[in-house]
Design brief:
alpha+beta, 11-stranded mixed β-sheet, 44 helices, 1434 residues
Length: 1434
């Protein structure tokens, strides 16, 4: 079959002729005035042989006369004997014999040869008649048109007595297909085909039973554990697969046990994944290796053919061109094309089948029985696109999705080897998580051990595990270690280079290397490798940072079998009790059981300040990590700054060690979940990627059109057509394109790093360039990190009214001073106060200190002049977002009495305090302070009479807080950062809407929003609040305090910008209400301040904004971390250099970091598109103008010029374009991300059309020149297979200079665009390169023949010809020109005309770009016909 295929293809290729003609004009027929050309003589013309049936019919001058003893033989010469060998050389047989020789030619014999002749006036369009006439005159043949025929056209007979032996082209040699190399091809590929056939038959029979057993059933991993309302008893293990839903394997499930649902559990259980089992087979393995070997052999065979093309094969073939193709260039080229095509198909097929190939050559089994398990995970592409797409985009997307599904690119296939534990249990590891086989259900699932959620139950586990139980759990969940596999440099390159684009580049560049274009191929290869190197280095840096953050192992004290032992953190399991020590790195999520700990969470959450953690209270409460339990949770990935054992406590476990209970290990931990999302993300599709599909389709259709023109103009030269088609496709989709996009992205990342903005996901840079809405937290982001103490306002105990506001805390009441000094969670870490910034500022205001050796939880030493004495904190309830309050029980050492202080938002404390103790003007007083931009906290108090400190733990929080009396207000000033207003103004100038999402009060948020300019001056602000999400929203005018029944009339009042003059603000409960009723969609883009927002509210708010535009979130970590991860672009203001909380983190804790990120990202996006535009224009010039001209005139640019264009101009300009810096400030528009948008289409289309016009007009100009007409290149006898010899003519010279200036201009014309990048004259590298190239090209054009021009065979000629033309004789070697006039020197006057013409072309495209694309025309069109994009109030 292979033999027949190869023979058929080669036979069709060899039928093609190797000629080309100008089809629309006569070459060298008329001069510029319409007169027939006066032609020079043509000397030494070879005449065809005259053939006759009998020698007597030869013209008298051609009758042979041989010496005595010799005879005239069929070879046209006299010999002693006419042997068969001599007779076979009959020129009248035209190298044909046997059945291939026409019967009319059998009896023809030659006359004597006619001497070479000189033709005085040679007419190229009538060359054969001129030659016959001259040769006939030389032989004295009269009336030859009637008496002499032409071989193959008119034979002997009638008046025709002789025939001109104008032989048709001899048939090209062909293979016998018995050559050794073809036999090797048949043998190797036939053996492989047979082997695969045998395997397929064997596989089909071997898998029959398995397929029958699994018919209609597909192995899966699903999570039904969340469906069960029952929990799992403390310490019990459960599978997260569906097998555990109905019948837990480990322990019973009591009805009263409470199990917390984790988002991670569903993720780990992979509800949509499917499993298949496979086992190895020796025959299948042999097949796989055979395919690999045969593929390599095909590539090597291609390499052998390439070496043979250059005569570089060793041995007897050394130095012989085309030795494997019988020294025939056409056969060599045709064979290479077939081999190249087969290799291309093989590689593409292997690429498409890559997800399935290895497992096809394994035997399918049940997952529980296989040596391997294949996990199939659906990929859900995240699309960052515009809300509206055109019909073409929709259909292209549908086609793309169908192709992805057909090629299995919509799923991820991961084959994992099945291993055994030390106890023989089967498991495999997928995405860093162990999946264990359940022997009962024969399904794999990850396991987790539920510790329960009751406080008492968790504390009861403080005794630790037994070694047996720990080993058992370790066997099920695997080691507590997240292994991030980072390949070495060679593996990283291999991983990068197996993608489709590199495969495409590899196969097309091979054609460059083969077809005498290896210099350009080498340059392109270097650029592609540079691009790959940049991507590999960036990816390795990111992976190594992640590995450093993810992998950690150290020795830790663990309680096993009731004893403390030193154990590696790898061996920790859920339920272990560990000792927490200062400086330790937490490797798992733990619950603090005893003692206090101060944690540095910056690398995990971006929180800049250390956080104080407290032990679980011994009560009947339930632990929840999203609630109060967060303050008792030590997260994996955080660092222990300081610990404090508690040996005497009223409501927590007492111990001389700080104890923690291991809750989750490995990828089950919060850090593990983050790492998994980073390591195994779903693909992100930017609008650029979406429209790139359309561009590829358009370019493919254009390539087909160009190839069609090649077929038409080359008149059947199949080999030349194929090679030019290959080059056309390669030049339309430039191999430099991915390099151009990566370089712009990487340069932006480097510049951001210099600004201390770190990026762990460089692909997000392009997304950041399109941010339209930026949401920001208030405290620590817009305002300074800490609040400034402003004063207090106490309640007079006798009158029950507010006393006067006081900025001096010592002038307030004794109880108020005690509350301020004690009701907080501040700790002292080596002289540094640690805790919530508000708590720290509050404690500083009290001028108290913390005793490092407390008798209870804390001991507060008050200032001596306060008279308060020592305050012992006996019990503390941490601040919880859900309660919006915290409380402490303190022991006044001076009186021996216990007091309860409650602190929280003024709304919460009003609800807690007794109504009789709340002043009547309480709400107004708090609102007035909030309107001043103050942060207001309220305190309540009560005295615990007759309660022993040891019994305080018997009371619940609600019991202790009930019946408190309002104590007063503590007021802080929320001060803006110095540059916040400037940053907001810059963002607004950059068409970016800014929104505040804060946990603070709405009134405070509104004041800050007004101060920083987020809310425009003189804007009305309506505040929507409700007590609960179920209540109706009450709208109030913030300034007049008047209720507003209907907000729609206010929103209908539009300002000069076309947007409402009224801004909205909502509280957390109102936001929930709007989301529940669906009203949020209509009001979202009118709401400026979202207040009292919980972390989950912030995520929901971000997701709502993401429906409308590319949304960024800026926060300082902590409770912003979830929102930072959810946004399209998250930037954490964190001191940590690498934070996994968001794609970007900034050590400069300022909103100006957001401005800098957008500035650099917009510049990076614009640079990427500038490079894209330049390369598309390059492709259009190369595959359009150049190719059409080369097709029509059968010419080519010279080899050195190709290298200059591809290797110097395209590469040099691409690199220097990327060096353009960002604009000084954000522009009022975002750069386009649509490669099919009006700006890109107008830019590329205008440049292409202008270049086409000037190119066509250059040939119009050329055909008007006297020195050109009648010296045109005749292409009738051109060998198109030798393209490098087609540039020695005027047509090629004009094309070379015109397109050379066009190529150079491409890089310069896309450098405009001061909106997003620095002005064009500040890109010094580009100006230097561009100026040099213009000067260099101008010198080649304007100077007389010189060494530089002659190196490119432009404006030069053969040395002797140049001397005849009056130029100095060259002292350097010039390879002889192949055209009749032996030069392509343009007269000096015409050179300057052509130079001016080229400069005019450059000027026209620059004017188009400056005035139309980036200038007044664009601005006018933007005003009159704005694009249908989301319009938001800035």
């Amino acid at each position: 079959m292979i033999y027949r295929f190869l023979r058929a293809i080669l036979t069709l290729a060899l039928l093609a002729t190797a000629s080309a003609f100008q089809v629309w004009h006569d070459v060298n027929r008329y001069d510029v005035h319409g007169n027939e050309c006066v032609y020079r003589e043509k000397t030494d013309v070879v005449c065809s042989q005259v053939c006759v049936a009998e020698l007597s019919n030869c013209p008298a001058s051609l009758r042979p006369s041989c010496p005595d003893g010799q005879s005239f033989c069929a070879d046209g010469d006299c010999h002693d004997e006419c042997t068969e060998e001599i007779q076979a050389q009959n020129p009248c047989h035209c190298s044909r014999s046997g059945g291939k020789l026409p019967s009319e030619a059998h009896d023809l014999i030659p006359c004597l040869a006619i001497p070479n002749v000189t033709i005085q006036q040679f007419h190229p369009w009538n060359s054969q008649n001129d030659i016959r006439s001259a040769c006939g005159a030389e032989a004295n043949i009269t009336d030859q048109s009637k008496t002499v025929g032409v071989w193959g056209k008119s034979w002997l007979g009638g008046d025709i007595a002789a025939v001109w032996a104008e032989c048709p082209a001899a048939p090209s040699p062909n293979y016998k297909y018995t050559e050794s190399y073809w036999i090797a091809v048949y043998a190797v590929n036939g053996a492989l085909a047979l082997l695969i056939l045998i395997w397929s038959v064997y596989k089909g029979f071997a898998e029959q039973s398995v397929r029958a057993a699994t018919s209609g059933k597909v192995g899966s991993i699903r999570d039904k554990s969340a469906d069960s309302s029952d929990g799992v008893a403390a310490g019990s293990g459960r599978s997260m697969g569906d097998n555990m839903a109905e019948k837990p394997v480990f322990g019973s499930t009591p009805k009263d046990a409470l199990t917390e649902s984790r988002s991670g559990s569903v993720d780990m259980a992979m509800p949509n994944n499917r499993l298949s089992g496979y086992s190895d087979s020796i025959l299948g393995t042999v097949c796989v290796w055979s395919i690999a070997v045969v593929t390599i052999l095909w590539i090597c065979f291609l390499g052998v053919w390439t070496a043979d093309y250059y005569g570089s094969l060793p041995g007897k073939h050394s130095g012989v061109l085309y030795s494997l193709a019988y020294e025939n260039d056409f056969l060599e080229l045709a064979t290479f094309l077939i081999l190249w095509g087969i290799t291309f198909v093989i590689l593409i097929v292997l690429y498409v089948l890559k997800p399935h190939l290895r497992n096809y050559f394994r035997l399918l089994t049940l997952p529980a029985k296989g040596e391997y398990v294949c996990v199939v995970r659906p990929l859900h592409e995240i699309k960052v696109t515009e809300t509206s797409v055109n019909w073409l985009q929709v259909h292209i997307n549908v086609l793309t999705e169908w192709l992805q599904a057909a090629m299995s690119r919509d799923k991820e296939y991961t084959t994992c080897p099945v291993e055994r534990t030390s106890e023989g249990r089967l498991y495999f590891t997928y995405q860093c998580t162990r999946y264990v086989l359940d022997e009962q259900t024969q399904q794999y699932a990850p396991y987790e051990f539920d510790l329960g959620s009751g406080h008492r139950g968790l504390i009861d586990q403080a005794g630790g595990l037994s070694s047996t139980e720990a080993s058992y759990r370790l066997e099920l969940v695997g080691p507590n270690f997240i292994e991030v596999k980072v390949p070495n440099i060679f593996g990283a390159f291999a991983r990068e280079l197996v993608s489709f684009f590199y495969l495409y580049q590899f196969i097309f560049l091979w054609a460059f290397y083969f077809y005498a274009y290896w210099q350009v191929g080498l340059v392109d290869t270097c650029v592609i490798l540079l691009s790959a190197t940049i991507k590999v280095v960036l990816r390795l840096q990111s992976e190594r940072r992640l590995k450093q953050m993810a992998e950690q192992e150290e020795t830790i004290a663990v309680k096993r079998d009731g004893e403390w032992a030193q154990v590696s953190t790898r061996d920790l399991v859920t339920g272990d009790v560990i000792e927490v020590t200062s400086g330790a790195h937490m490797s798992c999520d733990c619950i603090l059981l005893s003692g206090n700990a101060i944690m540095n969470e910056s690398s995990l959450t971006g929180e800049p300040l250390p956080i104080r953690k407290f032990p679980l209270r011994i009560d009947d409460g339930h632990y929840s990590v999203t609630g109060a339990g967060k303050m008792s949770t030590l997260f994996a990935g955080t660092i222990v700054s300081q610990v404090q054992p508690v040996t005497k406590a009223a409501d927590s476990l007492e111990s001389d060690r700080v104890l923690a209970l291991v809750r989750f290990t490995g990828t089950m931990s919060d850090k593990g979940q983050l790492v998994r999302r980073i390591l195994f993300p779903n693909p992100i599709s930017f609008i650029f990627n979406e429209q790139m599909r359309i561009v590829v389709c358009i370019l493919v259709l254009y390539a087909v059109f160009v190839m069609g023109m090649a077929v038409y103009l080359y008149k059947g030269n199949s080999v030349a057509t194929a090679f030019y088609g290959i080059f056309t496709i390669a030049q339309l989709l430039s191999p430099l394109l991915p390099a151009a996009l990566v370089i712009g992205q990487s340069i932006a990342a480097t510049r951001l790093r210099k600004k201390k903005i770190y990026c762990v996901d460089p692909q997000r840079i392009m997304t950041a360039g399109k941010v339209q809405i930026l949401c920001a937290d208030k405290t620590g982001t817009l305002t300074k990190e800490g609040l400034e103490f402003y004063g207090g306002r106490c309640i007079d105990e006798t009158s029950g009214r507010f006393a006067a506001f006081s900025g001096d805390l010592l002038s307030t009441s004794r109880r108020f001073q005690q509350a301020v000094a004690s009701c907080h969670s501040v700790a002292d870490l080596d002289g540094q106060l640690i805790g919530n910034p508000v708590d720290i500022e509050q404690f500083r205001a009290s001028n108290a200190t913390i005793d490092p050796q407390p008798e209870y939880l804390d001991a507060i030493q008050t200032p001596a002049d306060s008279g308060l004495g020592t305050i012992h904190v006996v019990r503390r309830f941490q601040f919880v977002h859900a309660r919006a309050s915290m409380s402490v029980v303190i022991l006044d050492a001076s009186t021996g009495k216990l007091h309860v202080f409650v602190k929280g938002s003024f709304e919460r404390i009003k609800a807690v305090a007794r109504a009789q103790s709340v002043p009547g003007d309480y709400d107004d007083a708090c609102a007035d302070l909030a309107r001043e931009g103050c942060y207001v906290l309220a305190f309540a108090h009560k005295t615990l009479d007759a309660v022993d400190p040891a019994n305080v733990g018997d009371f619940t929080q609600d019991e202790l807080e009930s019946g408190c009396d309002m104590l007063g207000l503590l007021v802080f000033k929320n001060m803006l950062k110095e540059d916040t207003a400037k940053a907001i103004a810059e963002l607004k100038h950059g068409a970016t809407r800014t929104v505040m999402i804060t946990g603070d009060t709405a009134l405070t948020g509104i004041v800050i929003a007004r101060q920083c300019g987020m809310v425009p001056e003189n804007s009305r602000v309506l505040l929507g609040e409700s007590k609960t999400p179920a209540d109706e929203i009450q709208w109030t005018d913030v300034d007049t305090r008047e209720p507003v029944a209907d907000i729609q009339p206010y929103l209908a009042e539009l300002g000069s910008d076309g947007f409402p003059t009224t801004e909205l603000a909502v509280g957390g409960a109102a936001f929930e209400r709007l989301c529940a009723t669906g009203e949020i969609d209509a009001l979202l883009l009118n709401i400026r301040v979202f207040a009292r927002m919980k972390p989950t509210h912030k995520v929901e708010c971000i997701e709502n904004h993401m429906k409308y535009a590319v949304t960024a979130m800026c926060g300082d970590g902590g409770n912003d971390s979830l929102a930072l991860r959810a946004a399209h672009v998250g930037i954490a203001l964190s001191d940590a250099e690498a934070s996994i909380v968001s794609p970007f983190s900034s050590a400069d804790r300022s909103m100006m970091s957001c401005v800098e990120l957008l500035r650099q990202s917009r510049a990076g996006l614009a640079t990427s598109f500038a490079n894209f535009t330049a390369l598309i224009c390059y492709g259009q010039i190369m595959a359009g103008i150049v190719k059409m001209c080369t097709f029509y005139f059968a010419i080519s640019l010279t080899q050195n010029l190709w290298m200059l264009i591809d290797g110097g101009i395209a590469t040099g300009l691409m690199l220097t374009i990327s060096m353009s810096g960002p604009a000084e400030r954000l522009a009022p528009h975002r750069p386009t991300s649509r490669i099919l948008g009006p700006q890109m289409l107008a830019s590329v289309g205008g440049i292409v059309i202008i270049n086409w016009i000037f190119s066509v007009m250059s040939y119009v100009w050329l055909f008007q020149q006297d020195w050109f007409r009648c010296n045109e290149r005749s292409t009738a006898d051109v060998n198109m297979n030798k393209w490098w010899l087609l540039g020695d003519n005027y047509e090629s010279t004009i094309l070379s200079f015109v397109c050379l200036f066009q190529f150079i201009n491409n890089g310069f014309v896309v450098n405009y665009g001061y909106l997003y990048r620095a002005r064009w004259y500040k890109n010094y590298a580009l100006l230097v390169v561009w100026g040099f190239l213009v000067a260099f090209s101008s010198y080649m054009l304007l100077a007389d023949p010189n060494r530089v021009g002659c190196a490119f065979r432009l404006n030069c000629g053969t040395a002797s010809t140049l001397e005849k033309l009056g130029y100095k004789k060259p002292t350097w070697y010039i390879e002889p020109y192949i055209n009749p006039i032996e030069n392509n020197v343009i007269p000096k006057q015409s050179r300057y005309e052509l130079w001016g013409y080229c400069l005019g072309n450059m000027a026209a495209t620059n004017l188009w770009q400056v005035f139309v694309i980036n200038g007044p025309v664009r601005n006018l069109l933007r005003k009159r016909k704005p694009l249908r994009r989301l319009k938001v109030k800035l």
